[in-house]
Design a protein that fits this description.
- By secondary structure, this protein is an all-alpha fold.
- Among the domains are: 103 residues, Orthogonal Bundle (Arc Repressor Mutant, subunit A); 62 residues, no CATH class; 57 residues, Winged helix-like DNA-binding domain superfamily/Winged helix DNA-binding domain (Arc Repressor Mutant, subunit A).
- It contains 15 helices and no strands.
- Helix 4 packs across helix 5.
- The longest helix has 28 residues.
């Protein structure tokens, strides 16, 4: 990658939340400003101002100047008003989602003057407060300067398997809460079905109370609407699973339980629970079962990719 491309990507990553999301959707997902304005129930001029601000800040970053936000008299006031409106809507949606997932406490939202990433920290703190002490300590040790939810993806040596498993469980608890980061929530609202930011679909897992737990609400009747042929085939595959695998799959996909909780409820090991969930997912979706060779090759490629990214960041830091 050339140096000007690295500067361009660094400038895009350093943008404020709203201009960055709109800029990526417009340039990488082919979403027009008119469609954005219609989805957000706002005027096209505010969207155009956000895109203009994003371009100006990226060019300022590439020219080695300090990027500054658009002043109020040049349209920055309209951008700030749109940010406040969307941020308030995202907070309301988050509180409703967490209440449906069984979290009784309220989120301690930061001041509106703080960046949107501060809201991510507040939601993470609420979810982590419900975890066991060992997981809370692992979460506190993993935090640095970036949002806590992103730091759970950092590289960790293989011999620290216990810490890796604890951080992975914290990450699953955060993702199973139903809460979504502001950029993913906004991108799904503007362009649903585009699978932002990874461009591929991921299974939606939501933590919901079980029938024997407080706050349980029966799911609505999903058979009211006619099923497609693919849905009928998936239901037939699900019904043909062995009972233990069937229960593990439902506890995972319908109630958002972790491997440890599923293992404790079914009387098996956590590794066996994860193995049954993976097999059930591949069988229900109609995917080809992965071989041991494929799994080893994928694991090696993923670790090698992380190593290359770390080396690239170190070289970039030395050049700066």
């Amino acid at each position: 990658m050339h140096s000007y491309e690295e500067q361009w990507l660094a400038g895009m990553d350093g943008l404020p939340a709203l201009p960055r999301i709109l800029f990526r959707l417009h340039n990488f997902y082919d979403v027009e400003p008119e469609a954005m304005a219609q989805a957000l129930a706002t005027d096209r001029s505010s969207i155009a101002l956000c895109l203009t601000e994003a371009r100006s800040m990226i060019h300022a970053r590439c020219a080695f100047d300090v990027p500054e936000r658009m002043p109020a008299d040049a349209g920055g006031l309209a951008i700030a008003a749109l940010e406040r409106q969307l941020r308030r809507q995202h907070r309301d949606w988050t509180e409703q989602t967490l209440a449906e997932s069984g979290y009784s406490s309220a989120v301690l939202w930061p001041e509106p003057s703080e960046p949107i990433e501060a809201d991510h920290e507040a939601v993470s703190a609420l979810i982590v407060a419900t975890l066991p002490p060992t997981l809370r300590r692992a979460f506190d040790r993993s935090r640095h300067r970036a949002p806590a939810t992103a730091n759970l993806w950092r590289y960790m040596p293989l011999w620290r398997g216990i810490v890796r498993r604890r951080l992975d469980r914290v990450r699953r608890e955060i993702s199973y809460s139903g809460w979504r980061r502001f950029d993913e929530w906004l991108a799904d609202r503007i362009a649903p079905g585009r699978n932002y930011p990874y461009s591929y679909a991921t299974p939606t897992v939501r933590r919901r109370p079980l029938p024997d737990e407080e706050g349980y609400n029966p799911a609505p009747d999903l058979n009211a609407a006619p099923l497609t042929e693919r849905q009928k085939l998936m239901q037939a595959r699900l019904a043909s699973l062995p009972p233990l695998t069937h229960d593990a799959w439902l506890l995972f996909i319908r109630h958002g339980r972790t491997d440890e909780e599923i293992a404790e409820r079914l009387g098996i090991s956590a590794r066996a629970a994860r193995r049954r969930i993976d097999r059930a997912m591949r069988f229900v979706c109609g995917w080809r079962a992965s071989s041991l060779t494929f799994q080893l090759r994928f694991s090696i490629q993923r670790r090698w990719s992380k190593r290359r990214q770390q080396c690239a960041r170190l070289l970039a830091a030395f050049r700066d």
